[in-house]
Amino acid sequence: MGSVALDTSVVIGMFRPGDAHHESARAEIEAARLREDEFVLPAPVLSEALVGGYRAGTAPVLRLRIVGLFGPVRPVDEEVAVTAAELRGRHRSLRLPDALVVATGIVEDAVVLTCDKRLADVDPRVQVVGG
User: How far is Cα 66 from Cα 127, in angstroms, rounded to an integer?
Assistant: First the structure.
């Protein structure tokens, strides 16, 4: 048993059957469930994952599904914010949403699952799904 922080790419991949990462995201999430890992859902991930739902008019249902499967939502607090700033200071091309996700993983001592290969070198906790 451990903790798994999810990046937006994994959450979107899980809920979009046509997504290139759908199968690998599902497999990783199922494996985490079998290990009885605890999911960590960073607040920025919920926000990013709901954008498409708001565009399609399905955000309320999508929100319930995401939070129901992976919640509760982990807020960005001072420790996560400072850790994200440290990461951005070391990695100039790292975007703030990605830094917040990895920082949440660091603060929660969780593996960070992502489909984004660019995050692989940010921290040893980052595991690229399907990569």
Answer: 21
Instruction: Check if the beta carbon of residue 49 is closer than 8 Å to that of residue 61.
Output: no
CATH class of residue range 3-128 = alpha beta
* Crossing angle between the packed helical segments 96-107 and 78-90, to the nearest 10 degrees: 120
Cis ω for the linkage preceding 72 (within 30 of 0): yes
DSSP letters, 54-91, are HHHT-HHHHHHHHHHHH-SEE---HHHHHHHHHHHHH-
Q: Hey, where are the domains in the chain?
A: 3-128
Within 10 angstroms of residue 131's Cβ, the number of other Cβ atoms is 11
- Site of tokens 């100039």: 92
pLDDT tens digits along 12-43:
999 999 999 999 999 999 999 999 999 999 99
pLDDT in tens, 74-129: 999 999 999 999 999 999 999 999 999 999 999 999 999 999 999 999 999 999 99
Q: Are the C-beta atoms of residues 120 and 7 closer than 8 Å to each other?
A: no
